Write the structure tokens for this entry.
Amino acid sequence: MSNILVVLESRDGSLRSASLEAVGAARLIAEVSGASVLALATETCELDAGVLGAAGADLVLMAKTSGHSAEGAAATVARVAKEHQASVVLLAATVRGRDLTGRIAALLETGFAADCTALDAAAMTFTRPILGGKAFTTVKINGPVAVASLRANFFAAAGREANAEVQEVVAEAGLSRVTAINAQSGGRPDVSEATRVISGGRGMGDAANWNLLEAVADAIPGCALGASRAVVDSGWRPHSEQVGQTGKTVAPELYIAAGISGAIQHLAGMNCSKVIVAINKDADAPIFKHATYGIVGDALEVLPALAAELQKLNL
Amino acid sequence: MNIITFVKRVPSTTANVVITENQLNPEGVEFVLNPYDEYAVEEALAIKEAAGEGSVTAISLGAGEAQKELRTVLAMGADAAVLLASPLAPAADGATTARALAAAVKGREFDLLLFGKQAVDRDQHGVGPAVATLLGVPCITEVVKLSVADGKVIAEREVEGARETIEASLPCAITCQKGLNTPRFASLRGIMAAKKKPMEVIDVDLGTAAVEVVAMNMPPARPAGRILGEGAAAVPELVAALRNESKVL
């Protein structure tokens, strides 16, 4: 009887929500194959068996170790995968998750698929964007175990009525270790994980005008800030905000592009967003071909009006 | 300080993509050195220059055409290049690539392995850490700041909403993220010198692929959108559409 193993990621002792999406994806496979869903936290953290059970886990394992070592975490996952005859190992495609995916596959002598956006539980295939989102490939992993990371906002926790049991397991030692973690984003979610994103481009005119974007973001709960490559290369915004082929690929419910013309690298990185709003002076800008709603106009004039209108709603 | 850096020939990020028979149609596509590998090469050269001794070797798994990108790396200042040649290389999956690269590293002396954090064609992010795992050395991924001294590496990387500091001992693997450095351009002198530098070509058999491509498609077409109007006057209609029609607010 095979199992589906999900790697749970934590920070500052708390489970990260991206992991619950992976647990939900594992449940989809378990419902088809009849397998059990095991969720493994590679470090000691607060785990709510009720939340994990509802998300789709049958059994929750927690390795007893503080601090993160990628080699240690990968070795713990590989050992647990073997002990429990896992046929699939799933991770959230976060920075840490992507780091672990290739390592776990190497330890289990199998292949891997990173940043998957869909899976077929019956055929056991994974679909993932390539070329920065310009194309998609569907793959089957040839090996004893399928190792895959899942991109944020494409899967959801199962939302079932079930409880999971929590057991402790031994953690493997690693070679490198994380010695410090410093929060950076000023309370906003990361652009790669947010369900709402507002991005600015050259049409914002100057880095000083970002307060206009921030005012809109402040009026929308859970809204992250993004930026075009041109803006990041000009030093207006940090690279951590860059959306596109050499930045982050995003798929929020709502993506607002302000003063972004829509270079092909940028479009590839955000065209999976559910609703795209484009605000641009140039009515012929490529972004409008991808937008759900467009406003032709200067972002510097439209954004304050948008912020004011949103503030009225008290979202 | 002996450094091995790993590079890949990839389609330019400005390329339009056409998929034919489950493959990227290379017609009209410009191929370049993977942008993230430029950071790896720059870091390798800068570390060697600071140490005042050692060597930088670039290894690429590629078809014969990838010699062009290896020449670019030699022109930037690398000492030697190795092409692991296979006609199947451009379509190779991450695990298969990692096995071939790890096998090529065995028997070579190294202190540091430097990778781009991802290749912008397959976007797997996994080859560097997989190679390090196969070789039994530590690996730090997506590094934006790196210091190497006294046999020890201290690196920083950006995770979602935070910055991590990570330490490891040499020998060690690093995958490089944008922001780590500003890659140099090859000088004319460098380009001339590169012609005389050694380029070893080793034919490799990639064996059975670890990942099989079942299908490759263009992204689904987006439903047609609409222009709501001009300037700030269109804002109320936009907010109403987001709330009542799309229900995303």
Summary: The mean pLDDT of chain A is 96.
